[in-house]
Amino acid sequence: MTRDHAFASDDARKLAAWDPFDPNAFAPFFDGEWMFGLDASADEGWFDIAFANPPYIRQEKIESFRVNNKPVVAKAQLKADYKTFAGTADIYVYFYERALRLLKPAGALAFITSNKWYRLPYGKGLREWLATNARLLKIVEFDDAPVFEAIAYPTILVATRKPVPGKSDPNDLIHALNWTPIDGEDPKESVKRFPERFADEAFVLPQRELASSGWQIEPQAQRGLLERVQAVGRPLLSLVDGRVSRGITTGLNDAFVLNNEERAELVTKHPASDRIIVPYLGGREVKRWHVDSSGNWLIKLESSANVEHPWSGMANREAEECFRKTWPAVFERFTAGSMRQRLIDRDDQGRYYWELRSCKYWDEFFLPKIISTKISSEPTFSVDTEGFVLANTSYFLQSDHSFYHAAVLNSSVSNYICRKVFASKQGGFYEVQPAPLEKFPIPDALDEQKTAISILAKSLHAGADRPRLEALINAFVYELFFADELHARNLCPFAAAREAGLMNLAALEGPALARAADDWSRHLADPAHPLYATLFDLQSIDAVRIIEGRT
Q1: According to CATH, what is the number of the domain 45-217?
Q2: Which of 6, 42, 89, 341 could cysteine-pair with 93, CB 3.0–4.6 Å?
Q3: What are the backbone angles phi and psi of residue 267, rounded to the nearest 5°?
Q4: pLDDT surpassing 60 at residue 156
Q5: Domain ranges of the chain
Q6: In this predicted model, which residue has the larger pLDDT, 76 or 281?
């Protein structure tokens, strides 16, 4: 296009309708050559500054479009155009790359976006690309603070384009701030004092310390603590069987999930149905230390990709008739009213509309396992010994030391790590992701130490009172991670608990163990007992104070 180009009628209408003074309007066109006199063949190096609050469009909503009346698959085009492409990335990721490429060397970029790309896997490409191509100057993390109405977990990032791409210099320092509202102050009024607060509270962060695995925007003392914890422990994945797996996505719970009455009705109509009905646990039923089942069940009709059914390999009509004869009561449920069409229309299904989507680890659900919710405000791990099939809002893993590992994962140290490696959600929650969870550091422990921690975890699983026993679990885990600091102050929680008779509870189980643990835990509340003094004196350890937010 040249400057004297005659606009097509559609372009002319868009240009005429655009109000550049409307802050809520966007321009449904962009032509760099006409608007800015750019060379159409050039792709970068034209602007002195780029600032934006890019649109927030989740990857599921990135749709196809048309060019020259031909359909273009949006994600395929993004993959071809952007080095930061990730299949699950929100669209603002590409705005960062595009803006920086259009800047002159040393040109400045200032963006307000969600901070999720700092930690989530889809942001790895952008983190690496910025490390090579940008000199980061300022970062502000707002997390859950209500300072912007339209952005969840906003961050402000200010950077310049490196004249020559390459590794960051050791002297490249970022001034960063984790913004927190002041108690009693209107957040909007607090923001008006933003420059003063940034000048007073910002800390220095070397750009080189922003790892491609995830950015930790925090002062050196906290960054160093996280590194220490990770160095002491071994990755969870190296200590468990298999990997962290997700629960089942049915695509239509109304069809596949049964309450007790619905299960009884199906079994009464066709007693053999009981063979494909299994206990089912929703994400909200997974609690810290235990499960709270509502008594629901799942119709377990696996995909023909996983098992051989009588109808497997048949044409659809013939297969459906075979399904009707094989499981008549389930067929009746699945074809009543609009249910059949809803099953057909769902995205998650097997080779036939009545089947669940393919899953390679069905058998693992019925083994003892550690389970966790997907969305949490604190570590929410439990041990399932009853063989529940889980909903897709839960994760699970197998372990030969399930109660020991669950206890470490529920500890204060784990809670500290969760806040650093998982993506934040509103209201103080975070989203558990399998990849970071598989890297969680688990400290080495002697068999007796594992037994002591497992006694407490089994007691809590059986219903013992939480606060005292959780405090002792935390103390045990602190000793495993920070033994030198504790022992230098003569703090030995394992030894103190052993001398107080904790190991005498090892032979007990269930309610008897819970009662005995509650009775034994009175030592922890007795100011005259050495265990009480040990727990109290832990607060003198710097690492403990940082982890528990007491600094």
Answers
A1: 3.40.50.12420
A2: 89
A3: -70, -35
A4: yes
A5: 1-42, 45-217, 219-404, 445-547
A6: 281
